[in-house]
């Protein structure tokens, strides 16, 4: 007879344990929900900041477009010292705005990375917390079932109450399981953003490098203006004399190159050349200002009457990219030997497809001799060095087997030695044939 009263005591303890378990699991569910609301607020704040950066970027891009439009108008004006100074000043303003734009893009990318990282981290922590909580709940329930449930069922007067408790526990456990499955799915989706995060971090590195490059170009622009004022003593007559002397030297230097390259022996075998369209564009935005070979402009601008490459419109500081995978065979600056002649700052790349290219008139060279470059990799920035009538990118394409970087003494340049890519006349190719179709 003592069995019944004695067995009733564990029943009360068991019921209290079950109630506490239900309350505990309910608290877990509440804790599960709270971080989501907290994160939502943080995510919205980050998104608002990203939206603001996008708005700032749009405004800056409009300003840059206006600067470039004004710079383009200088091309229609007669060469004068006043024009050159104004052009340099306006270029500096545009470059400074370019730098501000790059910084805004850096800020936006940092916010994007923060948003992605925070989102992933919070969801991972929520999943971990829920897995631990459900494991604890299952363990506790199993212990109760194994040790007390039979006694409870036999001794409990109110069978309805105990079955309700069990049903509640089961319902909560099922809800937690569903929550964990849902969070795991969310985590899987967020893990897909890891590639996006890595891409954003790579973009951040690129933007920071670009900002440093832009700063160098601004410094060069300032130095160029100061040098011009010093050379001309801020006098128009001195400026015109400087232009005349440079033009004469440029024509003489061109003749030297033409005479030398025309003597080089080479027979072009078209069967050994790659098919059309194997190269990609060297600039993001394409506008051809002068074609290859004999054109109306080439007859006017070059003593030979022929243009050795293709010219693309591009403001100072525009990134220039490799047109295919290859190796940088040389870099240099003809202004170091003969200022105002030929390529100015240049990069020469030998591609893996049998073609080579030279980029001329750069403001800044990013590549180095022997460097392996991939298609689309930045190797320099457009500029106005060497002989130009305005900022642009010159691209020459050659048969690789017939072209090399050479050192040659120059009578035009007072016996100095110049270094640049040289090739037989027959080894020059039309770049547009190997680039994507314009139309």
From TrEMBL:
SUPFAM superfamilies: Duplicated hybrid motif. Gene3D superfamilies: 6.10.250.3150, Glucose Permease (Domain IIA) (2.70.70.10). CDD domains: M23_peptidase. The keyword Membrane applies. Residues 306-400 form the M23ase beta-sheet core domain. GO terms for molecular function: metalloendopeptidase activity. Keywords: Coiled coil, Membrane, Transmembrane, Transmembrane helix. Residues 43-98, 173-210 form a coiled coil. The chain crosses the membrane at residues 20-40. It comes from the Bacteria. This is M23ase beta-sheet core domain-containing protein.
